[in-house]
Design brief:
By secondary structure, the protein is α/β, with parallel strands linked by helices. The chain folds into 2 domains: 7-36 and 325-419, Aspartate Aminotransferase, domain 1 (Alpha-Beta Complex); 55-322, Aspartate Aminotransferase, domain 2, CATH 3.40.640.10. The chain has 13 helices and 15 strands. A 7-stranded mixed beta sheet has the order 4-10-9-8-7-5-6, with helices on both faces. Strands 11-12-15-14 form a 4-stranded antiparallel beta sheet, covered by helices on one side. Strands 1-3 form a two-stranded antiparallel ribbon. α8 (202-211) links the parallel β7 (184-190) and β8. α2 (52-66) crosses α10 (306-322) and α11 packs parallel to α13 (408-419).
Length: 424
């Protein structure tokens, strides 16, 4: 597509956008005059769906009406509330319905999954992951290896970009897996790297891990709802993600889990178990001896946090109507336009000194700008101009044009704000 840095071009694209109406289904934060801000921070916290209150109120009404009997009566009985989210979740990440479940929060689920899939011994105990992963991932991995009696610096292989570069090459990841194959117990990566925005080659990494004889797991916090995923087809062993970034389900809300059916349908797969993962048809018999519910649901620990899941259901229903493929297609155009606007404005304004570190062709809808010593000043300037972006120490500005609610006009307006930046 031939882009143009003009309001007419942006308006033309918005008029031709089949998904444009979804923008009206979200609440935008506003400035002191009540004008909506240009929100490019969905990679950190997504906007609230206007239906969220309705979905939540429905469950509050059920609680008021039924009390404890709401577990078995009402429109959506709480006893198996997770099932009302299953089909849309499976559709979102390219899974079979029995391979997914919504439960807990992200890092809790990563610990549960590593308890099942990180099974080290004296010879094979190492984990390969990207250097500079989100801190929660690093902390979880550290505690896992130390729990098993290993030292982090010995047991964890952190892969860094080549000298002078900011992102990893897929061939370097595969080469590292092959090099350490005899010592590996797990390959664990992000789907989309939170800092650089790099979208890792999940199927290639998974295939390399399996050739080395170890499982492959992924933190999809920045991938779910952002890029089109095919976890079942790609043969991924396990994955988890949060719901409050691209999935627009509220701060700190519930997490999703994927466990491939070759593991999740095997009752012998090791796990940390709890009452709510016990077989539904026998759960209230209160018997000794754990018998898991088939599928990923067999990893549940406690009963569903219904109110948070109700808000998540509101967002998942929007994704179902919009279609993840359609969103991914728009994302490529919208993010491509952002890339164009950033470069065009940099060419026009000598005060803009940044480089784009998110690789073209390996990205979702996030672009990360590596700035100079004036980076924070640039970020603050954009904030004053009504642009909500994201600052990450020491010098990166992250921007995410989310296809559900961002427009081409948003991106053009961002460009106009960039052109007014000065260094005084």
């Amino acid at each position: 597509m031939n882009f143009a840095n003009t309001p007419a071009f942006a308006e033309e694209q918005d008029k031709a956008d089949a998904l444009a109406s979804y923008r009206n289904e979200f609440w935008f934060p506003t400035d002191e005059r009540g004008a909506p801000l240009i929100y490019l921070c969905g990679n950190s916290l997504g906007l609230q769906p206007k239906t969220a209150g309705q979905y939540l109120q429905s469950e509050l009404d059920e609680w008021q009406k039924w009390g404890v009997e709401g577990h078995f009566h009402g429109k959506k009985p709480w006893f198996h509330y997770h099932k009302f989210l299953t089909d849309n979740t499976a559709e979102l990440v390219g899974a079979q319905p029995h391979e997914v479940v919504v439960m807990n929060q992200l890092t809790v689920n990563l610990h549960l999954l590593m308890a099942s899939f990180y099974r080290p011994d004296e010879e094979r105990y190492k984990i390969i992951m990207e250097a500079g992963a989100f801190p929660s991932d690093m902390y979880a991995v550290q505690s896992q290896v130390e729990f098993h009696g290993f030292d982090y610096d010995d047991a964890v292989i952190e892969l860094k970009p080549r000298e002078g570069e900011h992102t990893l090459h897929t061939e370097d990841i595969i080469a590292a897996i092959e090099e350490h194959a005899d010592q590996l117990a797990l390959v664990f990566f992000s789907g989309v790297q939170y800092y650089t925005g790099q979208y890792f080659n999940i199927p290639a990494i998974t295939e390399a891990a399996h050739k080395a004889g170890v499982p492959a797991g992924f933190d999809l916090a920045h991938a779910a709802g952002n890029v089109a995923l095919k976890l079942h087809e790609w043969n991924v062993d396990f994955a988890a993600w949060c719901s409050y970034k691209y999935l627009n389900s509220g701060p700190g809300n519930v997490s999703g889990v994927f466990i491939h059916e070759r593991h999740s349908l095997n009752p012998e797969t090791p796990r940390l178990s709890g009452w709510w993962g016990y077989r539904e048809d026998k759960r209230f018999l209160m018997q000794r001896g754990y018998e898991p519910e088939p599928g990923a649901a067999g990893w549940q620990l406690s009963n569903a946090p219904v109110f948070g899941m109700a808000v998540h259901a509101a967002s998942l229903d929007i994704f179902h109507r919009a279609g993840m493929k359609n969103l991914a297609d728009k994302s490529k155009k919208l993010t491509g336009y952002l890339d164009f606007i950033l470069k065009d404005c940099r060419n026009q304004n000598p005060n803009l000194r940044f480089s784009i570190i998110t690789p073209d062709g390996e990205r979702g809808c996030q672009i990360s700008l590596l700035t100079d010593e004036n980076g924070k000043r640039l970020f603050d300037h954009l904030t004053k101009q009504g642009i909500v972006a994201d600052w990450r120490e020491p010098n990166v500005i992250r921007m995410a044009p989310v296809p559900l609610y961002n427009s081409f006009t948003d991106i053009w307006k961002l460009g106009q704000a960039l052109l007014t930046f000065t260094i005084s």
